[in-house]
Amino acid sequence: MRQHLASFNGYEITTAGDAFQLVFHTVTDAISYCVTVQLKLLDMPWPKELDDFRAAKTMTDMFGRPFFRGLRVRMAIHLGGGGLIHQVHPTTGKLTYAGLDELVAREVGDSGLGGQVLISAVTKHRYLEEIQGWTKPKKGGRPVVVQFKDFFFREAPSCHIVDLDIVVPMAEIVPYLLRPRFANGRRADQMHVLA
Fold it and tell me: Taxonomically, which superkingdom (predicted)?
């Protein structure tokens, strides 16, 4: 996963247990990274023994194409605003972030299921603004937009951060090639493994 960071202008800021936090220059970079990594995870040389575990078992669509293979990695994207505190870590020398937006990003990340990419509504809105700025009108006056070439958005249950009494509206980013992962109404508020 880390090997793809530089390709999408990403930077690792911290790790906590088996999770790590990343920052990107744009929301588009963050989305592109998440979609790319979810697809690349299917091609990893996972040990065959993982197929013995329901939560890591290879699952294929009706054409035999895998949509789950190996460990399921959940991801989430939240836009940090001016309320972030930037500090240089005394040991690593890396820039670190703290504050309400960092806490919200962490909670949003924890609310997803394995193999799922979540995005807060405010971040989705920023993405739509970013791509609108890149849209170029063609001769007929209609814009040419390729923003949803690789994925689509789907509404997801809100993330309720109990300690702060904050409700964060959410959406899912679903790569078209991985659409079967989200079939049959699998949602972020369901705590079961798709089998």
Answer: Eukaryota
pLDDT in tens, 128-161: 988 887 655 555 554 443 456 789 999 898 999 9
- Whole-number Å distance between alpha carbons of 132 and 145: 8
**DSSP H or E stretch at residue 38:** helix 27-41
97, 23 contact by CB (below 8 A) = yes
Token pair in block for residue 35 = 């979609």
Residue with tokens 């309320």: 83
Query: Tell me: domain 2-185, CATH 2.60.120.280, correct?
Result: no
Cβ atoms of 124 and 154 within 8 Å: the answer is: no
Q: Taking a C-beta distance cutoff of 8 angstroms, is the pair 74, 55 a contact? A: no
Cβ-count burial 36-69 (b if 16+ within 10 Å, e if not): bbbeebbeeeeeeeeeeeeebeeeeeeeeeebbb
Q: Give CA–CA dist 179/96, Å, rounded.
A: 35
Domain range list for the chain:
2-185
Residues 63, 184, 59, 37, Cα dihedral to 10°: 100
CA angle 128, 13, 149 (to 5 degrees): 30
Bridge partner residues of 174 (DSSP): 152
DSSP, collapsed to helix, strand or coil, labels residue 36 as helix
Paired strand residues for 66: 60
Strand, coil or helix: 79: coil
